[in-house]
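hey
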């Protein structure tokens, strides 16, 4: 009989959150609808309860969650999502700075996904996979510049291993997560050397 092949699937469960890069921005109306689980929301009536802020100056201002530092990689994460399918929605607006805003999801031990909107100096948007601080663009690299002081509606639908991202109701990313290959070992063998050596790469 044939052998069994073990494939590591990237989990899309994990914490959700928001982040900025050299930009002041605000977030509000944050909701997570979990398939088969409780709906989660952050209305900030209890301040920042449930949030774990990293870098940045995070505060609640008039019912919105504001990040007011111009530092790089300012991030705050909310509670973990334990469902394989969920919908994460929020509204976000840029106040000032170099870029727009980022939406974080599936933050777990394997890495995280970040939808970077108005990134790269507010010149384009793209879905990114981040593993051990290394960024890989997996999205559409859509050229665009987001306006300051305008609220944008963000919707991220996760269905097993498919990610759909909507901005103001328009589908912008439709990404099927491939099997994880980073933990596999690839060996290439070369026997064709003059001295008959066996070379492993």
């Amino acid at each position: 009989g044939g052998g069994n092949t073990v494939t590591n699937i990237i989990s899309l469960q994990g914490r959700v959150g928001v982040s900025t890069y050299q930009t002041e921005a605000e977030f509000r109306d944050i909701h997570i609808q979990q398939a088969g689980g409780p709906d989660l929301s952050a209305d900030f009536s209890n301040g920042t309860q449930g949030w774990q802020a990293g870098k940045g100056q995070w505060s609640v201002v008039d019912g919105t969650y504001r990040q007011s530092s111009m530092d790089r990689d300012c991030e705050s994460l909310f509670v973990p999502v334990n469902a394989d399918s969920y919908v994460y929605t929020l509204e976000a607006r840029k106040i000032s700075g170099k870029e727009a805003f980022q939406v974080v999801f599936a933050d777990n031990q394997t890495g995280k996904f970040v939808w970077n909107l108005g990134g790269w100096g507010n010149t384009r948007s793209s879905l990114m996979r981040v593993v051990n601080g290394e960024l890989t663009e997996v999205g559409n690299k859509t050229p665009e510049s987001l306006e300051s002081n305008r609220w944008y509606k963000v919707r991220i639908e996760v269905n097993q291993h498919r990610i759909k991202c909507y901005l103001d109701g328009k589908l912008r990313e439709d990404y099927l997560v491939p099997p994880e290959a980073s933990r596999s070992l690839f060996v290439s063998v070369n026997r064709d050397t003059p001295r008959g050596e066996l070379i492993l790469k």
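The chain has one helix and 18 strands. The mean pLDDT is 89.
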